[in-house]
Structures are given as structure tokens and as C-alpha cells.
């Protein structure tokens, strides 16, 4: 059975090597048929083209991630939080989590974005790898939940 700590470790490793652009380590973290999706929750920002992705396969995903990372700030920090499994079998598990994304502005940390991350991991060639990763960036203004549900 895939354990929550193993998924947390894999996601933590991914966000770290992504932020540090350790591109040579990226392929080992994904299955050959990985599906990567990214978008904002509103679809109405001036940076939609930069963040929107729906790519299938490790090579296509890595190509998109490389171009996206080259256009992103450095230092950049993705912090995964509240990672938890929603299902788990011997060879595959699904998960949900949040991420906080920060960068440095004027010498101080600044929040760049938050997001909900959902995905799946699978054992492939004896290693736990990400087989689906969906990132939905928060762009809506926060309001009272009752108001959000009524609207």
C-alpha cells in the first residue's frame, strides 16, 4: 500500500527540484504517461497563456515545465501543505494538497500565488512517480463562504 509519507516526500522533492531548476532530476519523478494540467480558477487573468497547460506524456510535460520555469522568477518557492491521500492501493494512490508560492520582491518574501493541487502517483519500474498532476491557481478574491455559495 502506498503510504502518505511517501507521497509527501515525492511532492516535496518535485517542488524543490522544480524551484531550483534541477532539470536533470525531473524525469525520474514522473511516469512515462504523466498527465499535467494547470489553470487558474477564473480563467480570466492577464497571465492565462503563461500558466495554462494540458499535456500528456513525460517528454511533453518536461518540455512545458522547462519553458514555464525559464519564464518564472528565481528564487521561487513552492510549499506543499495538507498533503493527504484520497485513495490508495498497492500500486497507485490519489492525493490532494495546497501549495503556497513565494518569490522575493525588494529583498523580502512575497506571496505569488496559492493553489489546489490534485493528482495521482503510481509505482513504475520500482519507483513511486507522479502520473497525474493538476494545479488550479487561486485568483478569485476571498469572500464569505455563504456569499460564495449564494452567488
Shape: globular
According to CATH, what is the topology? Nuclear Transport Factor 2, Chain: A
Rg from alpha-carbon coordinates = 16 Å
Largest sheet: 6 strands, mixed
Q: What pattern of helices and strands is seen along the backbone?
A: HEHEHEEEEH
CATH class value: Alpha Beta
CATH architectural arrangement: Roll
Strand content: over 45%
Poorly predicted runs of 5 or more residues = none
End-to-end CA span: 41 Å
Structural classification: alpha+beta
What count of helical segments does DSSP give?
4
Helical coverage, percent range: 25-40%
Mean pLDDT: 97
Considering the chains and any ligands shown, give keywords for the structure.
single chain; 151 residues; alpha+beta; Nuclear Transport Factor 2, Chain: A; six-stranded mixed beta sheet; 6 strands; 26% helix; globular
Describe it for me?
The structure is a single chain. By secondary structure, this protein is an alpha+beta fold. The protein has a single domain (4-150), classed as Nuclear Transport Factor 2, Chain: A (Roll). Helices cover 26% and strands 46% of the residues. It has four helices and six strands. It has helices spanning 4-19, 48-51, 58-70, 145-150; strands spanning 30-40, 53-56, 76-88, 92-105, 108-124, 127-137. It has a six-stranded mixed β-sheet. A hairpin with a 2-residue loop joins strand 4 (92-105) and strand 5. The radius of gyration is 16 Å and the shape is globular. The termini are far apart.
